[in-house]
Amino acid sequence: MATARKEQSVNLAMLDEGRTLFAHRCIECHTLPVVWRYSSKDWPDIVDSMSQRASLKPAEREAIIAYIIAVRLGEH
Amino acid sequence: MKAALRTGIFVAAILPGLSFGGARHFGFIYEAPTSAPGSFELENWVTWAPTINPEHSDQVAFRHEIEIGITDRLQASIYLADWFYQNDPAKSGFTYSDSAIELIYNLTNPVIDPIGLSLYQEYRGGDRFFEWESKLIAQKNLGPLILAYNATVEAVWEGKGLTDHEGEFQQAVGASYEISPRISVGIELLHEFVFPKWQDEEKIRNVFIGPNVAVRHGNWFVTVTALAQATATSEEADFQVRTIFGFGL
């Protein structure tokens, strides 16, 4: 399993929630960017910067970041 | 109308720090995604509808709408006031039209499902006026491209005793392409079937088509759509230019 920020453990349920939130919340304002458009280092800051606009709770924000990083890891 | 505006300002004042409901990519077409739960947004609409028919006058219509995300799939809106300015030699001036409640329920997602679908229901009431409107919203996101389709049925009762009635079926289709994370451009087409007295004897068909542009940044967005009438219905405006400005509260 991938590891998110602060060495938080990531499980399948969290990744599934992250995928759902990524697909639902982000498209309220813009189309979905492909995950390799930004680096794994940049994604947490990008999601953080939009989390208030998208009404993301801290756990939801972490789930989205974990999902994106897991997808990126899976592509390498 | 003043009471409704005061209510809106009061509600906005007691709910500080809430988030953005989402940006619109189209001016005349609804999109399938609903607002995030807990989001709270104020939208102001201005629609300019000029006509060259000397028997009719240009009109500028205004709407002030509060959009609230209820759950992950349910969104509610309150139209605090619809009002308009009419430039008519006989009677120019501002007139309050109506207020309304709108509900949108999202069924499927336009990215992860084959097609995104939502159901829309609106009830509108004013002085000697009541309208009921239902809509099926379909959308598909293909990378930076958003394709949207609306099928709308509406029924209007108006006049003294609400005895005058009219129906309309409308199809709308649009495309919006995201040229940058903050800017989208696209096209919209409306096809209206109007049924005066709920009859189709007059065979009134209207088609409007034109471009749109949407800009978003931070917790605000602006969307502008300019449509020209492609049919020859003298009762309808020749052009419609709609600007929607929304921001999170």
Question: Which key terms come to mind for this protein?
Answer:
heterodimer, A: about 80 residues, mainly alpha, 3 helices, B: about 250 residues, mainly beta, 12-stranded antiparallel β-barrel, 1 helix, about 5% helix
Explain what the structure shows.
The complex is a heterodimer of chains A (76) and B (249). Chain A has helices at residues 12-25, 43-50, 58-74. Chain A has 76 residues and is an all-alpha fold. The model of chain A has no long low-confidence stretch (mean pLDDT 87). Chain B is mostly beta strands and 249 residues long. The chains are: A mainly alpha (76), B mainly beta (249). Chains A and B meet through α1 of A and loops of B.
Per the principal axes of the C-alpha atoms, what is the gross shape of chain B? globular
Biggest sheet descriptor of chain B:
12 strands, antiparallel, barrel
H/I helix tally of chain A: 3
Please list the strands of the largest sheet of chain B in the order they lie side by side: 1-2-3-4-5-6-7-8-9-10-11-12
Helix content of chain B: under 10%
C-alpha end-to-end distance of chain B:
21 Å
Determine the strand fraction of chain B and express it as a percent band.
Answer: over 45%
Structural class of chain A: mainly alpha
Which quaternary structure do these chains form?
heterodimer
What layout of secondary structure does this protein have?
The complex is a heterodimer of chains A (76) and B (249).
Chain A: H1 12-25, H2 43-50, H3 58-74
Helix pairs in contact in A: 1-3, 2-3
Chain B: H1 2-14, E1 40-49, E2 58-69, E3 74-87, E4 93-106, E5 116-126, E6 129-142, E7 145-158, E8 164-180, E9 183-196, E10 204-217, E11 220-229, E12 239-248
Antiparallel strand pairs in B: 1-2, 1-12, 2-3, 3-4, 4-5, 5-6, 6-7, 7-8, 8-9, 9-10, 10-11, 11-12
